[in-house]
Specification:
It is built from 21 helices and no strands. It has 517 residues and is mainly α. It folds into 2 domains: 435 residues, no CATH class; 72 residues, no CATH class.
Length: 517
């Protein structure tokens, strides 16, 4: 399957998931607002998600996919299937032990992850309870990650990309159907997370069977391939998970700020996650097996071409998205969340965080696009060093900026550290000859920047004309935001075409499932 068509497949399903995620978050904001119950649930939800993104989507996928794809390329499907079964068995029993330990140690874990809650006993107790309900999600979603790696390596991206949709459906169902039956809506949401993990696992298990890869559960044995996989997982956990580590640091520090700070950052990050998930996750997911096969085959030219096209595609979508979010952060947050317990003050605080998060959006996506360049070549050490530098910078900047800027300072630190991480990865890849910008990318990147800035100016001018509708009744706000989004799309498309950042024929071919040279 062509690289950009694979990215479009993953991105399309991710877009559906993000839209459902917004529906979910709108319901959560209306019911929970930004108070103690919301803070407790968001921390509890972040805990398994942290480990999921570090060890399942991050470390495990980055270590497993190159090995599985390499076996497919060199030794055939049966050898790859045996390795997947061995990895599945060891992963399952390791996770069962980890979940059991965390369930018993959850109060201590909450002291570490949200120390500010200790001074608020009611919030602390809720966070511990919610986390105990949600944490088994890690077990199922980690197994989902293994099966997704198998399917992606086989060129079957759709089923794995659709799994987040199932989680959002479960959470929406929990809000609408289960919340009236539980002590608080937070209890319902926690059980929705747990159910989502089971549903996702069963979904991919069935799709692996349909793909002809029926994974059995042998006795766990530390074979040489499994030991090599384990040796690569720990360093990749830090290298691939810098963004998630930064968010946890943000949560720890935000718990020391006034009530609601964690919620402001959560809602802002949810909006920022739309382009990050659609573009960044899609690029990383599709690029890793492609690069792994090309590197294993010794085709350096093809690997460089894939890297360049992935970067071009990422820049083409993230730069205008970042520019737009900086300009229209206020209307976006107001339309999405300002209702019920989420009032104008909460909307203003969240919009300020979103505008700053958006400044780092291209960097977050660059990390996703550059990391496969290391993982495909089985280098797990360099990303760790880059991650360590960026993480230290994030902590230092958090402590400096949280005083004068409160929660917005935390967003500033996160964005700055992401740019630092991306810069380190790019420089090292370039020095190794694994990142050489071709003529096409060097020509189109500055044109994409110019088109994005031009679009931002257009949006700013239109916003002044829509000032009254943006402050009027809810339906008028929705109409005004829709007009802004449409105007931004038209402005960027026109400017990109005129400046030569992208050709209309290429976009048309991509939508028809064709790759572009």
């Amino acid at each position: 399957m062509a690289l950009l068509r694979s990215i479009a497949t993953v991105g399309g399903f991710t877009m559906i998931s993000r839209i459902l995620g917004f529906v979910r978050d709108i319901l959560v904001a209306a019911i929970l607002g930004a108070g103690p119950i919301a803070d407790a649930f968001f921390v509890a939800f972040k805990l398994p998600n942290l480990f999921r993104r570090l060890f399942a989507e991050g470390a495990f996928s980055a270590a497993f996919v190159p090995m599985f794809a390499g076996l497919l390329e060199g030794d055939g499907r049966e050898a790859a299937r045996v390795f997947a079964e061995q990895a599945l068995s060891v992963l399952l029993w390791t996770l069962l032990l980890m979940v059991a330990v965390m369930e018993m140690a959850m109060p201590l874990a909450m002291v570490v992850f949200a120390p500010g809650f200790v001074e608020r006993p009611e919030t602390f107790d809720l966070a511990v309870l919610f986390a105990r309900i949600t944490f088994p999600y890690l077990l199922f979603i980690s197994l989902v990650s293994l099966m997704a790696g198998v399917l992606n390596s086989l060129g079957r991206f759709a089923a794995a990309a659709a799994t987040p949709i199932l989680l959002n459906v479960c959470l929406i169902g929990a809000i609408l159907g289960l919340a009236p039956l539980t002590a608080t809506p937070g209890h319902a949401l926690a059980w929705g997370v747990a159910a989502g993990g089971v549903v996702q696992f069963l979904w991919l298990l069935g799709h692996c069977g349909r793909a002809g890869v029926r994974l059995r559960l042998p006795r766990p044995r530390l074979t040489e391939p499994v030991r090599r996989l384990i040796r690569r997982i720990l360093p990749v956990a830090v290298g691939a998970g810098i963004y998630q580590i930064n968010l946890v640091v943000d949560t720890i520090i935000a718990s020391l700020l006034p009530a609601g700070s964690i919620s402001y950052l959560f809602y802002a990050d949810r909006v920022n996650q739309l382009p990050l998930g659609v573009v960044g996750v899609a690029v990383g997911t599709a690029l890793l097996p492609t690069l792994s096969r090309q590197v294993r085959a010794g085709d350096a030219a093809a690997a460089l071409h894939s890297q360049n096209r992935a970067l071009e595609f990422a820049f083409l979508l993230t730069l205008p998205a970042a520019a737009a979010l900086v300009v229209i952060a206020g209307p976006v947050i107001t339309v999405l969340f300002e209702r019920g317990a989420f009032g104008p003050d909460q909307a203003d605080a969240t919009a300020a965080a979103l505008a700053v998060y958006a400044l780092g959006l291209p960097a977050y996506v660059l990390v996703k696009a550059l990391s496969p360049g290391f993982f495909a070549r089985e280098d797990t050490v360099t990303p760790v060093k880059a991650a360590a530098v960026a993480l230290v910078a994030n902590v230092v900047l958090n402590l400096i900026l949280m005083g004068p800027f409160k929660h917005v300072g935390i967003a500033m630190a996160t964005a700055a550290s992401a740019w630092l991480n991306a810069a380190i990865l790019a420089v090292v890849l370039r020095r190794r000859g694994a990142l050489v910008l071709d003529d096409r990318l060097r020509s189109r990147l500055p044109r994409t920047v110019a088109a994005s800035l031009g679009m931002a100016v257009v949006l700013g001018a239109i916003m002044m004309g829509l000032e009254a509708p943006l402050a009027a009744a809810p339906w008028q706000r929705v109409a005004a935001l829709a007009a802004l989004v449409a105007a931004g799309l038209v402005a960027f498309a026109g400017l990109a075409h005129v400046l030569g950042a992208a050709a209309v024929t290429e976009v048309r071919d991509l939508m028809r499932g064709k790759d572009i040279a």
